[in-house]
Structure formats: C-alpha cells, structure tokens
Amino acid sequence: MKHLKTLLFASLLFIGATSFSAAQSKVAHINTTQLVDAMPEMKAAKAEIEKLTKTYEAEIKTMATELQTKMKQFQSEADTKTEEENTARVQEVQTMEQSIRQYQAQAQQDLQKKETDLLKPIFEKAKAAIDKVAKALGYEYVLDSTTGGGVLVADGKDLLEDVKKELGF
C-alpha cells in the first residue's frame, strides 16, 4: 500500500511536470525598429520625406528672404513716407509674417500626413511577416526587443533574420 501511494505520488508529479512544460508558451523576440529600418521600402520612404522636407524648407527660406528684403526697403524709405503709408507698410509686413507662419504650420501637417501615409503600409508588411514567421516556427508570443521597448532580457529566439528572409532581403 505504501509503495502504491509512492508510485501514485510519483505519477502525479510526472504528469504535472509534463503538463506544466506543455503549458509553457513559446516566446521569441525581434527588434522591429531594426527590421523596419532594413526594409528597402523604408529607405525609399525616408528619401521621399527628405525631398519633401527640403522643398518646404526652400519655399519658407524664399518667403523669409522676400520678407527681409521688403522690411529693409520699408525701413530705408520710412523717413520719406507719410505716417499712413508707414502704417500700411507695417500692416503688410505683419501679414507676410503671419502668412509664413501659416505656411510653416501647413507644411508640418503635410509632412506628418505624408510620413504616416508612407510608413503605415511598411509597418503593416513587417507585422504580417512577423506573424507568418512566428506561426511557421510555432511561437505564441513575439516581443519587441527594441531598446526601451520593455524587454529586459532577450536570450530567446531572435526572429529578425527569419523575418528578413520572409520579406526577401
């Protein structure tokens, strides 16, 4: 009877240990920032955003130069003009300054929208590839190991190379 209890206890321990190990989830990690930065689409998107940024900067610089020129002209002619003309000129300069600020704000909004429009499909493609590789390799959880992303230890399987292979680079 005592042997039967010991055997039963040992069997329960063995069953519990095997079911516990079977219940363990397979976890992997990937540095999504590194993955997305390596994608060819990201390089093209960054180039397009940079080009648009330079276009806006050039336009704003041109507007600012025009404003500076007009201000210098008005200052040099201020003594020869009437009070009404000088008041109108000050109003014109203020209007130009306000126009430049509005253009800057609109340019910033346009850049943010363009960046979102360009990057969203890239992130979606990366996520789909991560999902596909994780399922193919039997991982239930994939953690983002980007610095500052919350993963403190990343000794498990790194899916970066597998996902790059899935994406074809």
Rg computed from alpha carbons, rounded to a whole number of angstroms: 32 Å
CATH topology type:
Protein Binding, DinI Protein, Chain A
| Terminal Cα span | 65 Å
Order of SSEs: HEHHHEEH
Count the domains.
Answer: 1
Summed over residues and divided by their number, the pLDDT gives a mean of 83
Low-confidence stretches: 17-23
Give the count of helical stretches. Answer: 5
Fold and architecture overview:
The protein is mainly alpha-helical. It has one domain: Skp domain (Protein Binding, DinI Protein, Chain A, 2-Layer Sandwich). Helices cover 77% and strands 6% of the residues. The protein contains 5 helices and 3 strands; from the N terminus they run αβαααββα. The termini are far apart.
Short précis:
The protein is mostly helical and 169 residues long. The chain contains five helices and three strands. The chain has a three-stranded parallel β-sheet with strand order 2-1-3, with helices on one face.
Search tags:
5 helices, rod-shaped, Protein Binding, DinI Protein, Chain A, 169 residues, mainly alpha, three-stranded parallel β-sheet
Topology:
Layout: H1 2-23, E1 27-30, H2 32-38, H3 40-77, H4 83-137, E2 141-144, E3 157-158, H5 160-167
Parallel strand pairs: 1-2, 1-3
Helix pairs in contact: 3-4, 4-5
